[in-house]
Amino acid sequence: MTESTLTKAPTGAVGAKGHAGCAGRCAPRLAREVAVGVGLGVLLVFLILWSMTIGAYDLTVAQAAQTILAQFGLAEPLENTKIETVLLVIRLPRILLTAIVGAALAASGAAYQGLFKNPMVAPDILGVSSGAGAGAALAILLGFGSAGVQLTAFLFGLGAVLVVMAIARAFGKSGNSLVIMILAGTVISALFSAVTSMAKYVADTDDKLPQITYWLMGSFARAGAMKNVAIMGAVLLVAGGLMMAMRWRINVMAFGEEEARTMGVNVKATRNVLILCSTMLTSVAVCLCGTIGWVGLIIPHIMRLATGPNYKSLIPLSMLAGACFMVVVDDLARTLVSAELPVGVLTSLIGAPLFIYMLVRGRKEWL
Amino acid sequence: MAGEQNAEHGAPATSTPASKSALIIEGLVCGYGTKRVVEGFSAQIKTGEVFCLLGPNGVGKTTLFKTILGLLPRMGGKVVLDGRDTARMNPEELAHAIAYVPQSHVPPFAFSVRDVITMGAVAQRGMFSSATAADRELADAILAELGVSKLADRVYTELSGGERQMVLIARALAQKPRFLMMDEPTSALDFGNQVRVLRCVRHLADEGLGVIMTTHQPEHLAQCRARGTLILDGRTFVTGDAREVLTPENLAAAYDVEVAVADLPYKDRTLLACQPVVG
After folding, report:
1. CA-based angle B180:B185:B188, to the nearest 5?
2. Class for domain A94-362, per CATH?
3. pLDDT tens, A126-170?
4. Which of B130, B191, B219 to probe the A interface (max A CBs under 10 A)?
5. Chain B residues closer than 8 Å to A177 by CB
6. pLDDT band for position A223 (50/70/90)?
7. Contact between chains at A309 and B99 (C-beta distance less than 8 A)
8. What's the ipTM?
9. In CATH, what number is assigned to the domain containing residue B178?
10. What's the predicted TM-score (pTM) here?
11. Chain A: nearest CA to B275, how far in angstroms?
12. Residue ranges of the alpha helices (H) in B100-227?
């Protein structure tokens, strides 16, 4: 038996053949990932320009492109300053914010799905959205201004996740802390939903109640200012950047904490940093634009079907695809009917059927 | 003996350090909370040998196994690797020394086999790094060494149980460890796949790795030319080679059934057979 084992054993030649073979086999897959990435990047630029032409004031893509290039001194500015105002003050900030929020939500969702070893997980699994919602509802009830509402929403979102983490830390054992975390997230979400309902119940039905209700539906209409773009952009740069840097480790986390640990990963530190990044991305997005569901759930799925589950490509591609998706959905929200639709409602209307379709098409992805 | 074979063959690209190393376990106490499941386990395991942990269900094999791996906190005793207490090693250092081969399972995402194996190299890379081309070449070289190169481009979740086990072994080898800890590597495998995995285990030991594996089949001790410990209960252990451990008396004491142990002549050699007596 030993003889036959040893004859099967490797020689340098076999190993070398393996190396040579890889160059041929690895390339197509990498090329596919790069191609999809470049395609999505080009699509995103086009979508942003095209979205700038949509609205009550009819414009062309060329006008939009020229106006933006003029900002960098790369083209002559348009003579009509009214067009410039519409594009740069009204439309561009909103579209940029939409794209950044889409990227943030999709990246958070992708990271959480790996971290919790579950493709059904969304970025608000730890209660960040319902916490932010309750914070906003209370702030509106107390008559805070829009900045106060945003800050309260952000702090409540962050607080909800911290409470969940504290519960998991206090009661979870090494083997089941993830399960405890998800259970605690469900419980805290329910608790904050009750707070929101209570706030709605006691709110003035003419003034405060509609305000709370519209806030919870999610919209980019009230958030489209360059200041918000800068805040959200900075968060994406820092938290999203950290997530990008650590993305390969999420692969290992998807095999479970015990295995990740025996492979040399500092599981607790990795998990906490990723949860912190996701929470920052989601809570800032929610506090600026309200709750926008489904993006964080379906975009990573679509990208897994397109280029595979390796987080090395999944995180950046999900960011690009999330940005594209969000921009398109917001365009629909702006144009489908004469009055604007809440974008959170549209993402659900589009996301739910899309998810069912993917369940049927891509079963083997998670079964 | 194993060391000599290793020297003769020369170490392949994926092999382990040539120097001998030893894992010394002294008076290990393990359990959960305040419950002491296993108490006073001692063993010395060297690179180049296979060491089996045998014992009835619920006796604490898995608890002991996980405590040696550092996944459960130990309640007493020592695990010393080359003079260093493993409790003082950080996860990365431990991953370079001891790799874990779990029972084959299915992750929620359809990673490619090459991606799965490349993950084994995570400990060799910094916190913010990604797999390199060299890691992917290592993955292909390890698959070639294990004789399963054809799996490289397959999807891990679509493999059979035997193939998945080989990929998990490959992933562990990508950690470049000195010891492998395998949790029932042949459970749920058919005869052919069992033999392929056991041959692989013996081959890796001959190449200079130390292999510690839990198993429910006493014959594995003889088949892998291994030493091992039969856990009779959490306080009583019998340690030695196949002939010393696999006596009808020891097996009856451990499993509470009669077990026939006999020499089975096969061609020009003798196999050791263990058969529980059913009726």
Report:
1. 170
2. mainly alpha
3. 999 999 999 999 999 999 998 999 999 999 999 999 999 999 988
4. B130
5. none
6. confident
7. no
8. 0.88
9. 3.40.50.300
10. 0.88
11. 22
12. 113-118, 133-145, 161-173, 191-206, 219-223
